[in-house]
């Protein structure tokens, strides 16, 4: 019996070619979108979940109250925290500190073996690192490989670059060049498999944390409880109630600070809590010390978009199937008279729908194969259409549900016809049927209007971000690493750079203005009443001038005043939080070292626009990791060519690798930019699918009313009158959809904009533009059929039976 149903279904699809093509286009496009989004969502949800102890693996997050009363959240913690927690808290199995070098703007170091050298990204980790994380060891003992202060573990990829193999490498020596104090010769103690693509952190080698601690404990206050330097990761014992543990450890750092420094009350030393490591990628935004979302919002958003796009395609199918029911009513009547029951008819029509859905799936898979490379470029991922069990189940499940959902109403509708009424020719369209069909059209275009408004608001927000005055000038500035022989002294190199035609200025700094910097709470000043968490960088002479920073008081670092080795500049927010009046000339203590305030810089944005400007300092230093060069507009290519030659002369054997600062800034919003771009494409597809359905309905309406149109033309109706007659009902439905959509869009987009400290406005003009766009698209779609019907020969229309 089943083959007979599919044979009849196939014949009906061929018979009604126009509606079949429209449905195939709509359903295949909807399924292709849904499956592409499914691949993206699955990739996002599997980030960092490959670790064996995923359910036990946590990161320690620190919060601290700033001078203005807001709670600042750090993923970095005191340098002593991991060791202390592992020793004192019984629920913790292992705890390790990890210094991620890129956190503070340090660039890749240079690792050398014999005559070979490559750039590599390093971490400094505690000895239990491989008991916490499940990176596979190819050589070495996970309990001993990171116990040697002068040992290093290499990834298999880095080992191949240096030694052309991963065999028999343990015990060989390499030379590391990252900074003066950490440079040196190290012995290879193990080889690990490089982090997979779904790891949030990518790195090439791991050094011993104790070595880093001993080297920089005085510089960064690593041995103080007010520092913010390493990340702290830990595994809890099975069965641990993490919520209860979080309550117990909340004031842990405060207590340790009081014990170490003998203070009675320390409100500002910070609280801590544990966050599941594999959730950090998706939940990385914090509001006053509480997790407030992150990329998970985009995962939910695109999941909803996928459902909506498939819904729109299903609605097309429903509308076109019920609209064309009149053409099949005699078929239903005859089948019922000859003994067919309603159940068999429902199965038949659902079978047609499922067949249509699986035909659409074949087309969708072809579309995905063609579009996946471009989709990967848009998303910055390496997604593959690999037909594993999970993907096959997802594809078949989505397709089957789509077919059943799309065909459910038409099946119930067609199978419910009264055979006597049908065969007497007395079947009329019921008001309920009309209302359902109209309601589905309204729902379709409500979603389309939502998409259009969302695209416009996201675009406006991205424009605000790109064009906002940041307090410094990011245009035509390049940044590159201080590496190789340049580490012997940047002074002569910077002097020569400034002589190049096209160079406006040049300087150097540790960290940058895109969120990579150090800081903490270990700063004291005259009359200090409360603790403040600071962010800050180190910088050389001419940095203020190169970046275009403006001074509110005092001066920037200058050779005219002798050595500035003990000088510091704070921003306006810091001075206000510190409660200092006439700050220039006053002395502060920064992590045990005396510094004199020589100036106050006007507030500028040193992080993304998700955050308000916080307390910030800039210390003078002539040992910095990054070189910055301001280039005259219009001379970029010629100046860069000269700069590359100069770099090669100073740093033999290395090529200049640089980034433009505006590109670095744009990376802060890479996810938002991708969301904006993808939203445009998905909105366009949703509108196209909706228009396919509207086009079919317009064609059906024109065909159904062709005799009426013929009569009207005979009695003198104009083409414009006929077009308006056929279009007005659809336009009213679309206008109703717009009215419903706009309040929903306003609410949802305002919720999204709350994530930003600086956000665009949603004005009436934006909704007017969106409404005009939706109505114009509607008019163009239905006019194609309306004009065709209006200019048809009335004689042919009236002869039609």
UniProtKB/TrEMBL annotation:
Membrane topology value: Multi-pass membrane protein
ABC3 transporter permease C-terminal domain location: 304-419, 682-794
InterPro entries documented for this protein: ABC3_permease_C, MacB_PCD, Macrolide_Exporter_MacB
Signal sequence region: none
GO CC annotation, single: plasma membrane
Keywords: Cell membrane, Membrane, Transmembrane, Transmembrane helix
Highest taxon of source: Bacteria
PANTHER family in the cross-refs: ABC-TYPE MACROLIDE FAMILY EXPORT SYSTEM PERMEASE COMPONENT 2, MEMBRANE COMPONENT OF TRANSPORTER-RELATED
Protein known as: FtsX-like permease family protein
Protein's organism: Niastella caeni
């Amino acid at each position: 019996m089943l083959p007979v149903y599919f044979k009849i279904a196939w014949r009906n699809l061929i018979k009604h070619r126009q509606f079949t093509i429209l449905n195939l286009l709509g359903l295949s496009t909807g399924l292709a979108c849904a499956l592409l989004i499914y691949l993206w969502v699955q990739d996002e949800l599997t980030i960092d979940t490959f670790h064996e102890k995923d359910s036990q693996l946590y990161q320690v997050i620190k919060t601290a109250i700033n001078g203005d009363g807001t709670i600042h959240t750090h993923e970095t913690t005191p340098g002593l925290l991991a060791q202390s927690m592992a020793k004192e808290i019984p629920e913790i199995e292992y705890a390790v500190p990890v210094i991620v070098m890129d956190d503070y703007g340090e660039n890749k170091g240079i690792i050398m073996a014999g005559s070979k050298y490559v750039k590599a990204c390093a971490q400094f980790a505690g000895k239990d690192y491989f008991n916490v994380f499940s990176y596979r060891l190819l050589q070495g003992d996970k309990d001993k490989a990171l116990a040697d202060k002068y040992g290093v573990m290499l990834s298999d990829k880095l080992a191949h670059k240096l030694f052309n193999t991963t065999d028999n490498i343990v015990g060989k020596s390499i030379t590391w060049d990252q900074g003066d104090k950490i440079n040196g010769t190290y012995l290879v103690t193990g080889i690990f498999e490089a982090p997979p693509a779904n790891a949030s952190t990518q790195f090439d080698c791991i050094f011993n944390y104790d070595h880093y601690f001993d080297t920089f404990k005085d510089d960064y206050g690593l041995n103080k409880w007010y520092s913010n330097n390493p990340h702290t990761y830990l595994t809890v014992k099975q069965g641990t109630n993490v919520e209860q543990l979080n309550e117990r450890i909340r004031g842990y750092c405060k207590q340790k600070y009081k014990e170490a420094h003998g203070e009675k009350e320390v409100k500002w030393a910070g609280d801590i809590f544990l966050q599941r490591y594999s959730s950090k990628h998706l939940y990385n935004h914090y509001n006053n010390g509480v997790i407030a979302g992150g990329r998970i919002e985009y995962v939910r958003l695109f999941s909803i978009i996928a459902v909506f796009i498939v819904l729109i395609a299903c609605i097309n199918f429903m509308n076109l199937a019920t609209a064309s029911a009149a053409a099949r009513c005699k078929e239903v009547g005859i089948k019922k008279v000859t003994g067919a029951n309603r159940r068999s008819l429902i199965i038949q029509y659902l079978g047609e729908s499922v067949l249509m859905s699986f035909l659409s799936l074949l087309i969708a898979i072809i579309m995905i194969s063609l579009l996946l490379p471009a989709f990967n470029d848009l998303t910055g991922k390496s997604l593959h259409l690999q037909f594993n069990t999970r993907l096959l189940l997802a594809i078949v499940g989505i397709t089957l549900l789509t077919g059943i959902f799309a065909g459910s109403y038409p099946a119930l509708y067609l199978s419910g016809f009264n055979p006597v009424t049908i065969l007497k020719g007395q079947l009329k369209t019921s008001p309920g049927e009309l209302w359902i069909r109209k309601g589905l059209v309204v729902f379709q275009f409500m979603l389309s209007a939502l998409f259009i408004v969302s695209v416009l608001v996201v675009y406006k927000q991205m424009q605000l971000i790109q064009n906002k005055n940041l307090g410094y000038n990011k245009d035509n500035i390049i940044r590159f690493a201080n590496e190789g022989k340049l580490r012997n002294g940047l002074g002569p190199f910077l002097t020569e750079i400034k002589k190049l035609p096209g160079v406006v200025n040049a300087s150097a700094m540790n960290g940058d203005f895109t969120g990579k910097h150090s800081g903490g709470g270990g700063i004291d000043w005259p009359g200090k009443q409360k603790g403040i968490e600071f962010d800050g960088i180190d910088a050389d002479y001419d940095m203020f001038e190169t970046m275009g920073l403006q001074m509110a008081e005092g001066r920037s670092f200058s050779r005219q005043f002798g050595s500035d080795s003990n000088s510091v500049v704070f921003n306006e927010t810091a001075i206000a939080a510190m409660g200092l009046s006439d700050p220039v000339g006053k002395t502060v203590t920064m992590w045990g070292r005396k510094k004199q305030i020589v100036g106050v810089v006007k507030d500028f944005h040193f992080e993304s626009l998700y955050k308000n400007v916080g307390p910030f300092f800039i210390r003078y230093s002539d040992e910095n990791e990054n070189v910055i060069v301001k280039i005259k507009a219009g001379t970029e290519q010629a100046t860069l060519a000269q700069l590359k030659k100069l770099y090669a002369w100073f740093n033999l054997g290395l090529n200049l690798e640089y980034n433009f600062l505006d590109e670095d800034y744009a990376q802060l919003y890479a996810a938002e930019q991708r969301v904006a771009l993808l939203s445009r494409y998905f909105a366009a597809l949703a509108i196209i699918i909706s228009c396919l359905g509207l086009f079919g309905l317009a064609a059906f309406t024109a065909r159904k009313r062709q005799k009426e149109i013929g009569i009207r033309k005979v009695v003198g109706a104009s083409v414009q009158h006929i077009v308006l007659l056929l279009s007005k009902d659809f336009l009213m439905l679309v206008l109703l959809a717009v009215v419903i959509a706009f309040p929903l869009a306003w609410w949802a987009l305002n919720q999204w904009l709350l994530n930003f400290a600086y956000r665009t406005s949603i004005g009436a003009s934006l909704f007017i533009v969106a409404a005009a766009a939706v109505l114009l698209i509607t008019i163009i779609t239905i006019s194609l059929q309306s004009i065709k019907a209006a200019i048809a020969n009335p004689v042919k229309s009236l002869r039609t039976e």
